[in-house]
Amino acid sequence: VLCYEILAGICLINDGHEKVLHAITESRKILGERTRFQRLIDDIYQNYVNERETERVRTTAMSLVNALLSSGPAE
């Protein structure tokens, strides 16, 4: 959860969006995941110890998604 919060915050600074996407891409390679956002998707769909923790992880993960979408280059 803390990692998602930090990454979402970095998206808000200059060049942060690009750096966060680069970091997510590099971690995918290191962890051997199929897609760049596999860990994020897995965390959103996983059920944790209790409902409160599950909602906390999902909310934080979606905050990162929102930060990535709202801070990226306009098309």
Automatic annotation (TrEMBL):
State the InterPro entries in the record. ARM-like, ARM-type_fold
Task: Please report the name of this protein according to its UniProt entry.
Answer: Drf_FH3 domain-containing protein
| Source organism per UniProt | Onchocerca ochengi (Filarial nematode worm)
Q: What is the lineage of its organism?
A: Eukaryota, Metazoa, Ecdysozoa, Nematoda, Chromadorea
